Amino acid sequence: MADAAYLNQANETALPVASGSHVSDFVALLKPRVMTLVVFSGAVGLFIAPGALHPLLAVVAILCIAVGSGAAGAINMWYERDIDALMSRTANRPLPAGRVAPGDALGFATVLAVFSVVLMGFTTNWAAASLLALAILFYVFVYTVWLKRRTPQNIVIGGAAGAFPPVIGWAAVTGDISLVSLSLFAIIFLWTPPHFWALALYRSGDYARAGVPMMPVVAGRQSTKRQMLAYTLLLVPASLVPFALGAAGLLYAIGVAALGVAFIASAWRVLREPDAAEDKRARQMFGFSILYLFLVFALLLADSLLGLAG
Q: What pTM did the predictor assign?
């Protein structure tokens, strides 16, 4: 913790000073591209939950998930502005590029985080609000502050933060947690390591330069690729649990089984590719992993709309 604090302090003077921030810069702090999948998975969790929620309240609940997720992402950017400045992928973000002042970013994110939790509590229920607060705190303090700079397992453990949205959506309707919502959590949790490690493989130079102990940097590329394949193998049976619990029908089961085979094949191709030529395969797997998760939740939604669940 002391080392991380020192890095932040040391780089404070090295970063450009913000001059004339624009609305688009504050929007960028919320990581809108990452937020899209988060919001969609949360919306699906809300939609397939048993019970009913007024359409306006459903929209507000989804908005709270989006704002809470964005706030956590903005705090992450505030804390990591020193290492973001060292990586080509992130050097042009608003904070390292000097378009937003660190204090403004932290204040903006903190207000949004508190607002999203309070609004969720008053409009739906405090169980959903508590889960949203837990997801934000987990992402900020467990993943960003504690794990990210300390262990190659940062993505494995920290990935739990990104797995909360469907559980929050479910709780917004029901006021509780169920085996079904936990199964959705497990799908995202197991999907996260191969998704991010695919990115880390072709961006390993960035992470090494910034001193972030991502798996390819610490354990080596071959070990990372084997673990990516292992997680995809675990993901296939986990993705079938909603079907086993009666929360999804045959359309979902057949669809996710086919998607799982394709995901495993993608991981296998990355594993078999020589280290010197694997970046293309890793990029392909990273792109497919995004499509994979979107389609899994889209199938859940379609199954529910068509009334095919048991």
A: 0.91
